[in-house]
Amino acid sequence: MKTDLRTQSSELEQNRYPPVDDEIDLGELLSVIWRGKWIIAVITFLFVLLSVIFALKQPNLYRSEVLLAPAEAKSNGGLSALAGQFGGLASLAGVNIGGQSTNKTQLALEVLKSRKFVASFIEKHNILPDLMAVESWDIDKGVLYDPEVYDSSSKKWLRDVEAPRIAKPSDQEAYKIFSDLILLKTNKETAMITLSIVHQSPLIAKQWVNWLVKDINKEMRDRDVVEAQKSADFLSKQLEDTKIADIRIILYKLIEEQAKTIMFASVRDEYAFKTIDPALVPEVRDSPKRTLIVILGFALGLVFSCMIVILKHYIRIKD
Hints:
alpha+beta; Bacterial polysaccharide co-polymerase-like; 319 residues
């Protein structure tokens, strides 16, 4: 008797809550999409139209690049043998011998990306307007500035910004924009370095790449000369205060090494990097990829419109 009651109760529950079919009928789905083809067509067309307008409004950007190789490091010669005997004084004087050598190439790359170097580079070459105010570039007229940002005739900044910013862009603003334009890539197998700049003007892109290579070589050369001169001065003072013959010989050799560093830096322009393939004025734009933008717009419009049609159909069924 109890079994019959349970069976009847189960049948009543099944009649009250019929099983739900969670499987998607592909044929029905295609039929829904076909019935809503005009909605899909209109929405997709709007997406394509907006993507075309967006693509046409994007300025052409040109990439100029140079291939660099790390300059060969100057050999320490016989000084490495002095490390065990006199490494403490050499370290105190700032002289790198033996295992104390540093990766000059990596240091140069980090300096190139530093805020101090970039700010100095922008100020030295007076490129702030070309960095922050360019609206477009014309092959006949050259660079055209945004009249609401910068007046090229009076060389006055006209930006309307909120405090604490002022009309003239700060070093922090300029650094952020410049960092987006510069690209450094290192080939791990060959150790070759590709330095590239993207800009609306292909002429400016090439010029900036050349300036960067020249300036970073000069910066690293000047740093080594200053360090070598300070080390030589320190060692000369120690030489005056030392009467022990063996120590004086070592000090002479250390001073000689610093003199070689200064001489080596003075006669070598490509101090940190050697140019393997120089920068050229690009003839073809690097971006935007307008065809790709339109294709993506079409794909997004198609997917979005199909989702709307399907969602509208199932909402109507539930109601």
